[in-house]
Write a structure and sequence with these properties.
single chain, 366 residues, alpha/beta, seven-stranded mixed sheet, 12 helices, 36% helix, 31% strand, elongated
Length: 366
Amino acid sequence: MNDFQAIADRVEIEALRGEFTDAAMMRDRPRLASLFTPDGALRMPNIPVEQIGREEIRAGGERLQSQWDFFVQTTHPGTILLDGDTATGRAYIQELARALDGRQGLNYAVYHDRYQRTAEGWKFAERVYEVRYLDTSPLAGTAPHAAQSSGTNTANATATPAPAASFTDPATAERLERAAAALRAGGFAAEILDDAAEARARIKDLLPEGVSVLTGASETLRLSGIDEDINAGGRYDAIRPRLLAIDRATGADEIRRLAAGPEFVVNSVAAVTETGSLVLASGSGSQLPANAGGAAHAVWIVGAQKVVPDLSTALRRVEEHALPLENARAQAVYGMPSAVNRLLILNAEPRPGRGTVLLLREAIGY
């Protein structure tokens, strides 16, 4: 092996180790699993955990990170010993973590690695995690999102950070397919479409002319033109214009009944997980009964940026990304802040075929 090849191999392996930490910090378990060979192993004897193969590494990681309140990992370069198409090495780790059940601590650890050159570049053949120091004393800090988690406090809703880039980037084709497969396994119909224009045309196929339709207060529907098609097109018995025409002080019961049981509800969601769950958030909760099961049929149009690995990340997306944007809209339109007072999580569809999820390859809405 010449010196230039050795330098290139070392740089690529170091980038691989950095990508591992980034994927862990961003809670992107599919990306983390892809850093291993198909039969690669992640072993953590102190937990104890042994995951073999990419699917076990992905699924096991999602179970682990669902327990986190916060997690911070820093990787320091260690040794790399090259041997043709294989290599061994060590990386040094510092971690801070707190679990939702209150367990917390600071630790220093070593990853003992084996690497393999593949057609996709260098991958982990094995990572073995060895803790060298552990301090379980209470941590003084907090995760920024924890201070905003109540969702009902006006100050929390208005003091919002910039949305995380990881919540605005469209999901890859692989992640969309994974989410669609999981949704179908849970009884939902799921389709992957190119863009909002294709979804707009597909809605006309899914909704028979003349049916009663309730649309959610959704930026995705507004931006795509679907809201206008349904509520102003004259093709359907549109519920939302009728709701807006009723006096809220005297017609609250009529509004509630109309919104709860239409033939169709068309909406978007705050997040869809790669494990097959839909997450909807609401301030008043008025549109949630129809989505939950009150409507005979439901159609959700979901931009690619709303696909997240798991339920814990979905809830973070609601608080850290969707709420700040909806809060700004509510302040501009209604002169009051928004809040996450109601959450609806759909893990499966007991009536197969009732709910259809149109996953888009483009990002739209928030």
